[in-house]
Amino acid sequence: MTDLPTDADARGSAPVTDNGPLLSSGPRLPARLRLMSFNIQAGIETRYYHQYFTRGWRHVLPDRGRVPNLRRIADTIREFDLVGLQELDAGSLRSGFVDQTAFLAKTAVFPHRYIQTNRPLGRLAQHSNGLLCRMPATAVTEHRLPGRIPGRGALLVRFSTPTGDLVVVLLHLALSQRARLSQLAYIAECIADEPHVIVMGDLNCHSASPELRYLCAETDLREPINEVPTYPSWRPARNIDHILVTPSLAVETVEVLDAPLSDHLPLTMTVSLPAALRGPIRASDQGRHAPSRG
């Protein structure tokens, strides 16, 4: 299992530089990418609203049903190429000190995983987001997103080829609209000059919201199918999980999977990559083979 180190400052981070060689006989971006965005609620299966109260203790204490549910989540994600996960635990009391990103990567046989812990609460909780992928990234940077309440971040993962870069941004946005607008303004600035971008995550707002309208107006991002509900998983009524792409990525399918393993359902998309992205991936010289967490 491999991972790239990340280096964040108080609000954002300078990109990890890439002067590495081309992997001419190594990994390449595939012509078609199978994407998934999934808020897994720290591995907690929720079927009814009342379980937020009757089983709320599972957010702070270990639960014997968590690992079997993580195995079911691994079975759900294993057929995809790039999976953005929100609300993981990086190893604390509530998860039985299991790094859930590492567990899912190993169980679903993903060779590369990248993690961002946004709210490290010591032994009590390690609130994180993670990206699992079949191909190695050239560079990974963490960004701490603006907001009155700290603890929201963006993970920006770059796959560089000789003729173009694919940039993937993983997000879990704030609950307040004001904070979300500020956070998406920050992201729009980060990707302003990037022609090939995927933004995915639990954005906590619907397709017609001012926040997403702003993001799409300030960038080339688009959402191919609007108003696809993913929450709550037992009776989907709200579309707060999203995958947005730039026009250079041809969208083939969009689907919400009937996999109620969290309080969200997984959102999936298949995209065809342009010829500019189909070359060998440039290696990173920033510890590409460094040991991963956990």
Automatic annotation (TrEMBL):
GO terms for cellular component: membrane. This is Endonuclease/exonuclease/phosphatase family metal-dependent hydrolase. Residues 1-25 are annotated as: Disordered. Coiled coil: none annotated. The keyword Nuclease applies. It comes from Spiribacter vilamensis. GO terms for molecular function: endonuclease activity; exonuclease activity. It holds the Pfam family Exo_endo_phos. The keyword GTP-binding does not apply. One of its GO terms (biological process) is GPI anchor biosynthetic process. Transmembrane segments: none annotated. PANTHER family: CALCOFLUOR WHITE HYPERSENSITIVE PROTEIN PRECURSOR, ENDONUCLEASE_EXONUCLEASE_PHOSPHATASE DOMAIN-CONTAINING PROTEIN. It comes from the Bacteria. Keywords: Endonuclease, Exonuclease, Hydrolase, Nuclease. Residues 36-264 form the Endonuclease/exonuclease/phosphatase domain.
